[in-house]
Amino acid sequence: MPTSETKATQGAKTRGSGTQSVYAKLRHEILSMRLEPGSPLDEVRLSERFGMSRTPVREALLRLAADGLVATLPNRNTVVAAINFAELPTYFEALTLMYRVTTRGATQRRNPAIMERIRSHQRDFTAAVEAKDAYAMIEANREFHVAIAELAGNSYYTAFFIRLLDEGRRILRLYYSTFDDRLPRQYVEEHEKMITVIESGDTEEADRLAIAHAAQIVRQIQDYVARDAGKARELTLG
User: Fold this and answer.
1) Number of CB atoms found within 10 A of residue 13's CB
2) Bridge partners of residue 71, in order along the sequence
3) Using CA atoms in the order 194, 197, 201, 207, what is the torsion angle rounded to 10 degrees?
4) What HEC string does 24-81 produce?
5) Is this model's pTM higher than 0.85 or not?
């Protein structure tokens, strides 16, 4: 017969799995822009939607807030966080630096296990591009660059790069949308070239590729903002 302690443990596990389920679903919808900035996230309605109590829903929203994807307004309503386009120049400056630092650093180290992870993430990215699956592209692209940072071997750089990549997920989603999710093959090839120069140890070529890789993302997003300023303003204001 289950003890009270056992029941409490089982209840905590159930709540934990419920929180993870809600978190994963909402995160996917926010990152894929199915839930746009400013969309309301009412605990009562969400608990009814997911068929669970408000506690795991509230915990999931707290996790999303920690990710910077959810915001609580002064009236205590919870909404999908706005995208701050005004901060994009400084964001892109930091992102470009981290592409360069981590890719250059990776050319100076050898680790067959991490290299295999890099190739595996690249295979996932290639498959996502071919499937026109933007969410899978974002995930695979993140893991690809994180693995390169791990190969470079500086945990501080890796942690900062992860933060930048996570903060930029919705920006990357907008980037892919400028191609109607039909990402040109050249972006798959850029990753392949990065792998080649890392394995060859060509630090200067790695730096050049990293600069070019970041520059085309910046250019495409800037073109998007200039072309569709009204939509960008909506996403900024929420």
Assistant:
1) 10
2) 79
3) -60
4) HHHHHHHHCCCCCCCCECCHHHHHHHHCCCHHHHHHHHHHHHHCCCEEECCCCCEEEC
5) no
Output the CA torsion sign for 36, 38, 42, 43. positive
Element (H, E) at 152: helix 134-152
pLDDT at 147 over 90: yes
pLDDT band at residue 7 using 50, 70 and 90 as cut-offs: very low
**Using DSSP, how many helices (H) and how many strands (E) does the chain show?**
11, 2
Separation of alpha carbons 6 and 29, rounded Å: 35
Cα gap 163→98, rounded to integer Å: 11
Identity of the residue numbered 149: A
| Mean pLDDT on 105-130 | 97
More confident of the two residues 191 and 170: 191
C-alpha–C-alpha distance, residues 55 and 63, integer Å: 13
Q: What is the pLDDT of residues 57-108, one digit of tens each?
A: 999 999 999 888 999 888 889 999 988 888 889 999 999 999 999 999 999 9
* Integer CA distances (angstroms), 208 to 65, 78, 96, 183, 219, in order: 36, 43, 11, 22, 16
Mean pLDDT of the chain: 88
